[in-house]
Give the backbone structure.
Amino acid sequence: MGHEVEAVADGAEAIQAIRMSEFDIVVMDMQMPVLDGLEATRAIRASDSDFATLPIIALTADVLQEDHARFLSAGVTSVLTKPVDWVSLGAEIDRLLVSSFERAGLNNAVAASDDGGAGQGALVLDEALLIELGDAVGHDVLAPMLGTFRDNMLQYQASLADAANTGDIKRIKNTAHALKGLCAQFGASHVSKLALEVEQKSADLDGVRRMLPDFAEGVNEAKMALEKYLAKPAG
């Protein structure tokens, strides 16, 4: 297919490889020795390095939608079933690479802007991304996933506020980092952007505390947009 590929034996080696070299995408077998694909994906997403946002394609023999939803909840970008359909795999790699590069360009443009307004430069809810996600897992599976995402987002917001009020800098940074990735995964782009800002200034307690009202407003806007999206008729 024209790609340079580095193959490794298990999830632990996969994590080590992406720490040592730059990659554009990860194709992750979900059943592996030492560290399986689920735990390797979680470790990648929990990292504070640039590779935490790498697109990850899960390859699995599991065909149940519940299993696919579990993998997506752990942070994989898309799921393909075995036996491997090489045409489908090639198409998915190409799609995610194009999407990744386009998003990188958008993120750079957002970072270069300085409008400061709530919701400016980042979507409250990226419905195009949700449609892609629904096509991948089934729209009947997506709806409960989005409900869980909404609940988790609210829990993270409450945890972040509590950490800021008690001065727990480490929990501020960890919570903001987790929320940034979670919201990016489900298209809540504005909250993801705010979480990145909180993560970057986590040691500045006064600055973080000043952000809390805007953060709460952003989460509430994302929540309402999600509920509006979920209320739309199927199809």
About this structure: Residues 139-166 form the longest helix (28 residues).
